Amino acid sequence: MSDRPLRGKTAVITGSNSGIGLGIARELAKAGADVVLNSFTDRDEDHALANEISQQTSTSARYIKADLSKGDEARALITQAGKCDILVNNAGIQHVSPIDEFPVAKWDAIIAIMLNSTFHTTAMALPMMRAAGWGRVINISSAHGLTASPYKSAYVAAKHGVVGMTKVVALETAEEPITANAICPGYVMTPLVESQIPDTMEKYQMDRETVIREVMLQRQPSKEFATTEQLGGVATFLCSDAAQQITGTTISVDGGWTAL
Questions:
Q1: Which domains does the chain have, with CATH numbers?
Q2: Spatial CB neighbours of 18, under 8 Å, sequence gap ≥ 6
Q3: Would you list the DSSP string of the chain?
Q4: Which of 63, 151, 155, 187 is flagged as catalytic?
Q5: In principle, which of 39, 79, 152, 259 could form an S-S bond with 17, CB 3.0–4.6 Å?
Q6: How many CA atoms lie within 13 A of 119 on its CB side?
Q7: By the 8 A CB rule, do 239 and 34 touch?
Q8: Could you list the pLDDT tens digit for every one of the 260 residues in the chain?
Q9: Active site residue 63
């Protein structure tokens, strides 16, 4: 088997200039895929990330700006990519507030960026996949796509919606060489999470290890963060021939969270 099984494929990963999306992009590129990075900014460092991936993996890597809160820009992202064999819907934001105090603008933004954009990008990518005779839709949901927490109404609703949409796409493509699955991470070690540890240590007057185990990973039985590399590995597996009959399902990478 080739060590670059995705050579010749193009992967579009939304929300991929940092964190989970960037980790997935790196792993898909290592497997030979050309990658399109995305976020709502258009900075030199965004394009530098693409150049870095290209040089490290000998693949084509580009960065395309698109504000996924806007349906027309989400659709334009796929059009500008020109090709989309692998679609990874990852972009997301969070806001925590009781329902009766939840800002309407925040609700609208979360639903737009995480749920509506998944509809728009998938609608544009499926014809490309059908024309190519092969495709993978990988939606990054969450443990919160399978269970809930208080004060996260928009996030939980959006992530549950992503799981439901994944199932619909899988059924609509079931007789084609296209699959659709959702990855449901628990807490993942990203630069954003890492930056929150010192403040949390100060707030609870705890050392780093105790804060991670007892506060940040309270609901994650393994008491370990998942890594972006692990999520990238799962995404790469879902693009493999071994995963051809895996469609319409969720894969939890949550240290046992949803087993409780």
A1: 10-187+225-254 (3.40.50.720), 190-222 (no CATH)
A2: 39, 190, 191, 192
A3: --S-TTTT-EEEESS-SSHHHHHHHHHHHHTT-EEEEEES---HHHHHHHHHHHHHHTS-EEEEE--TTSHHHHHHHHHHH---SEEEE---------GGG--HHHHHHHHIIIIIHHHHHHHHHHHHHHHHT-EEEEEE--GGGTS--TT-HHHHHHHHHHHHHHHHHHHHTTTTTEEEEEEEE-SEE-HHHHHHHHHHHHHHT--HHHIIIIIITTT-TT-S-EEHHHHHHHHHHHTSGGGTT--S-EEEESTTGGG-
A4: 155
A5: 39
A6: 14
A7: no
A8: 468 999 999 999 999 999 999 999 999 999 999 999 999 999 999 999 999 999 999 999 999 999 999 999 999 999 999 999 999 999 999 999 999 999 999 999 999 999 999 999 999 999 999 999 999 999 999 999 999 999 999 999 999 999 999 999 999 999 999 999 999 999 999 998 999 999 999 999 999 999 999 999 999 999 999 999 999 999 999 999 999 999 999 999 999 999 99
A9: no
